[in-house]
Amino acid sequence: MPRGTQFGQLVDQFREEAGHAVSRALGQNELPGIKAILRRTYRRLHSDFEWPHLRVYRDKTLAAGEQYYALPADLLSDRIAQAWVREQGTDWWYDLIYGIGLDAYNTVHSFRDEREDFPCRWQVWEEEQFEVWPVPATSDHTVRFYGVRAPKPLTDENETVDLDDDLIVLYAVAEMLARERSSDAELKLQQARQHYMRLRSNSQHTEPFTMKVSHDRRGGRSRIDLTDAAQNQ
Description:
By secondary structure, the chain is an alpha+beta fold. The protein has helices at residues 7-18, 31-48, 102-107, 165-179, 185-203; strands spanning 5-6, 55-61, 68-70, 75-86, 93-95, 97-98, 121-125, 129-133, 142-149, 160-161, 212-215, 222-225. It is elongated and about 65 Å long.
């Protein structure tokens, strides 16, 4: 799969595929529009399917007395699949359950600075942050998120694209040619769809990550071995 192509190279590939002038000097007026189509196509394809290579683990260290934390900058808040917490000084991870309701707040009053070790619930707060409950009494607990990496902004031409470059270019060119009422528009769209289905089919052969779970007698929480889960992420 041709990933890792620079955004500037993607623009050149678009010009070649669309039959436009490859020279930047000959097509400066078209450049903003080409980049806009490529960015939009990239974002759509990024969100359209959960590409396995975009699934990542991200860690966040908790501090004593802190209720709210910034989410990892490159992680989509609405596509976090799972979260775990590691108790300070241990090698075991425990399920961090999503959702903090009134029952929780009425049990341990976070807004009165009541603290306990260690957190067992979390939820997204104001989109860019997350909240934990109970508020940790000591520092250095670690939260590990498993989710989908956010799309890149593609503002710099040296920025590399993390999706298949042919897929992005074919869909973008099909849109451009359709606007121009070109007879090639339908052909490019068919090529894009065929390539998309091929990539999806190949990606579904990727084996999902399997967790090792054991039961913790303290409070009945699931205890999980994540020793190798975040390697190379």
